[in-house]
Amino acid sequence: MHGCVDVTVSECSRLKHELKRMIISMKIKEFHILVEKCKTIERLEGSGSKFMKTHRVGSSRTKEGYHQKKSYN
Fold it and tell me: Which segments carry the region annotation Disordered (predicted)?
């Protein structure tokens, strides 16, 4: 799991609350199972960059912004 370095304190608190809620709902009681699930999620999030779509932005005659990667989100 990533630390709260890149988010604000309020976002970090919200994320912690969401994680607690999800963990409780999954009824994970053993730490190693939680770690494995987190690793799986991180791998899935890391592979998201493979699904980037390249398309034209602006005029085809300009080089600036000709190809920019945009995610599906």
Answer: 52-73
Walk along the chain (73 residues) and give the pLDDT tens digit of each residue: 555 556 688 888 888 888 888 777 777 788 888 888 889 888 888 875 554 444 444 555 555 554 555 555 5
Distance CA 26, CA 36 (A): 13
What is the rounded CA–CA span in Å between residue 57 and residue 54? 9
Q: Which residues contact 65 (CB under 8 A, 6 or more apart)?
A: 57, 58
Q: Residue 64 CA to chain centroid, in angstroms?
A: 28
Q: Hey, what amino acid is at 49? A: S
